[in-house]
Amino acid sequence: MYSFDDRLDADMRMDLTLTIDELPNTHTNEDPDGLLLYGRTKPHWLLAGHELPLQNRIDGLEDACEQESPALEPPSLQQPTDQGHQPDSKSKPMHSIFKFIDQQFSGFVGMGAFKELIYRQAALFSIQQKRSKVGLNGLLSPNRHIVFAGNPGTGKTTVARVLASVYHKLGICRENKLVETDRSGLVAMYLGQTAIKTREVVESALGGVLFIDEAYSLTEQDSDDYGTEAIDTLVKMMEDHRDDLVVIVAGYGEEMDRFVRSNPGLKSRFSKRMHFPNYTARELCEMLLKLMKQHHYEIESQDQIERLLEQRFAQEIKNQGDQFGNGRFVRNMFESIVESQSFRLMKQADFTQQELSVLQPQDFC
Predict the structure, then answer these.
(1) Each residue of 245-290: pLDDT tens digit?
(2) What does residue 272 show for φ and ψ, rounded to 5 degrees?
(3) Residue ranges for the chain with pLDDT beneath 70
(4) Domain boundaries, the chain
(5) Contact between residue 233 and residue 126 where contact means Cβ atoms under 8 Å apart
(6) Alpha helix locations (H) across 206-249?
(7) Other C-beta atoms within 10 Å of 238: how many?
């Protein structure tokens, strides 16, 4: 999703100077070359070319805003010793909002890239709030609406729920609320009623997040007056309640691109896009194993079964292409395996408590 390539030292010196100078009401005599040296000896300080890690940028600005003195020594920026040892100081603790995001994602497989994107969203809103508190002009009013593009079962609804929680934690949303809908929830049977139905759904999401799954279905039909009416109503309400509503639209990548282009109001409001790739065969295997563990199942000959599962997942991904169900496929497979085990046990005259929890190789066929 993001590439973290090294820049030329000259560019990095310039960017470091700009970053330090942007801190509100602060001055520093730190030499950019010294900071660059620190960055080379402590690589986590400089990522993505000129971007400081989000945690350090937030903590640094937070400290700067709270200090009364105009002078600022950036936290944990002691120069390395002549012997090349790292400075003897504890690193700043992870910002609380990042900890909260990590907690929301705990237990999920293959979500690392999305955590980075949500970190960036949280950092943007958090820093703008802090700028407002210290009276800085030229505040950015971030666009909160997002397109989620990806195949079914790739975690779009899960990430939407996390965003709703994060936005509430930041104070962007009044409530920790996600209202889920699709075309059937917005479009009525008769022309003229669709606007009323759409308005009611949007009003139910005020103060939180509205998640519209398969939103492209509102525009995929030729001469679809009902879908057009729903979109026009949605755009108007997004404008009328721009400070009290977050809208996430989701669906297949190409279809969502066409959806956004279908209406100028949509294109201007949905400037952010998150791509949800298919899970890998290994990630799908990990998801299935987690499901089994959560339901207190054990696998006989687990190493052998894992190899067979990965092969099967890889083949299914190849065969089904864009129609592959990802997480949904895993859930269906899990239910099929448990059904096979149940049928096998019922054919026995008797079975032990241990056998109730053991999945044998034949259950995976």
Answers:
(1) 999 999 999 999 999 999 999 998 998 899 998 999 999 999 999 9
(2) -105, 140
(3) 1-94, 138-140, 221-224
(4) 9-66, 143-276, 281-364
(5) no
(6) 225-240
(7) 20
Query: For residues 27 and 22, what is the distance between their CA atoms, to the nearest angstrom?
Result: 10
**CATH for 143-276?**
3.40.50.300
β-sheet bridge partners, residue 251: 149
Task: Extract long-range pairs of 224-230: CB within 8 Å, 24+ residues apart.
Answer: 225/191, 226/187, 226/188, 226/191, 226/194, 227/183, 227/187, 229/187, 229/191, 229/192, 229/194, 229/195, 229/198, 230/183, 230/186, 230/187, 230/194, 230/195, 230/197, 230/198
Phi and psi for 213 in degrees, rounded to 5?
Answer: -85, 145
At residue 71, what are phi and psi to the nearest 5 degrees? -90, 140
Q: H or E segment at 259? A: helix 253-261
| Location of structure tokens 């939407």 | 160
Q: How far apart are CA 239 and CA 265, in angstroms?
A: 9
Strands (E), the chain: 146-150, 178-181, 209-213, 246-251, 272-276, 298-299, 358-359
CATH of domain 281-364: 1.10.8.60
